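Readers of this paper often ask what the protein records in our data store actually look like. Such a record has a labelled line for the sequence and another for the backbone structure tokens. Nothing more is needed to write down the fold, since each code stands for a local backbone conformation. The record that follows is passed on verbatim for readers who wish to inspect the format.
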Amino acid sequence: MSTKQEIFTLMNGRVKMRRGVYNPTSDAVWLAAMAPDNIKTVLDVGIGSGGVSLCLMANRPGIQVTGLDVSDDMLDACRDNVKLNGADVELIKQDIYDWRTDRTFDLVITNPPYFYGTPAKHNAHHNVDLALWIGRCIARVRPMGTFCMITDAATVADAVSVMAQKLGDINILPLFGARDVAERVLISGRLGSRGITVMHRGLPMNYEPVLRDGLTIADCLSRIPKK
């Protein structure tokens, strides 16, 4: 990431972001990198200031993105960042728990909030029911479409147990910090598939081919030497 006045960038300058109440971290770049190739429509649940969607659009030009959030502050920040990048995103103020729609998407992507206690200043979700959040996200995936998330390593068991009820071809990729302990985990699965669950060899969280160059996870895995 680089800084210039109130603007900072992701993916070696390919995505520009205005500094605000909530600024996306490397989690946004990693989650965008996990998306599959064959997608046209995307729902970003809890879009926040737009980091995940903008990184995804940089990796997958031409996709149609819809962003959902309950916070006016976050939606305003996202709208500003979308304009800053010359992008086009449909933004909807709605709670994923209560959204009544029959719309489905090729990809539903989310970075669920895992902070607890006093609500954040930007009034986004806190103290979420992770199982319910994931279930509501999966309900918006089209048949054989993909659900993809990044989460804290401590919540992996809960996330996979919910996903396995509806999804197959589940892929799990740990991201390791400085102490060689997984800090974040990327998880994806396909609705209606009966494919097996695969745990991949992990990658370091500061892996520059993803964070700097925008390499996708599929490309990263293809480069790992087979033993």
About this structure: The first helix runs from residue 26 to 33. Residues 116-120 have pLDDT under 50 and may be disordered. The helical segments are 26-33, 51-59, 72-84, 130-138, 156-163, 208-211, 217-223. Residues 135 and 165 are 10 Å apart (CA to CA).
